[in-house]
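Ticket #238: bound-state structure for zinc ion.
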Amino acid sequence: MTELPLFDDADVTRLLCIVAHPDDMEYGASAAVAKWTDQGKEVSYLLLTRGEAGIRDMHPDEVAPLREGEQRKACTIVGVDDLEILGFPDGLLEPGIELRHAIAKKIREFKPDAVMVSNWELKSPWGLNHIDHRAAGIATVDAIRDADNPWLFTDLADDGLEAWKADRLLITGADATHAVELERAHVDRAVASLEAHTVYLEALSDHPAPSDMIPGITSEAGTRAGVDYALPVQVFDM
Ligand SMILES: [Zn+2]
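RESOLUTION: The complex was predicted; output attached.
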């Protein structure tokens, strides 16, 4: 008996992925992105920070462009051309009006039918979560609603960005309700996309090898869904 139903992604055509940092999409989510871009779906990444505080022994001024470059490489590997990186402060992200406004603006611009974020709970299945991931998730949930409310952020409407409803929210790294079926080739590209964060990973001495980690995550979810590989996701209708 399979525990996780497969996620029916047939009617997802435009997906906006919103994360706090360069590399956040690369822990399994990018495997599903590789599948979807192969299928001709439009996928856009919105990163809220440049990840400049992520390498202990390097100055943020040096780290920000480096991590941006590594993220662009990772995006290319999984077929994503549309990468926007905002300059909110890494490590100090707050889920306030400014962040919600920035996310709502992107939602109204890109007009996704689904939004993907990573888990925002303090206690996640893999341990205690990072403050920026928590802020990014909370702000995204609120901004999805804000983007659909014509009476909020009317300055966006003045700029021609009308209210837009994103119908579905997909959360990675959370208690899964569904599984996105993957092929091994998608998993391999996800491994390569994580490996693209070369300097960042080198600075983390205890980081497991991407070639162990990503097949591990996706084969475990695959087993739960009765397929070889899958990305576990929690799905909400908005
Ligand atoms: Zn992160």
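RESOLUTION NOTES: The longest helix spans residues 60-77.
TICKET STATUS: resolved
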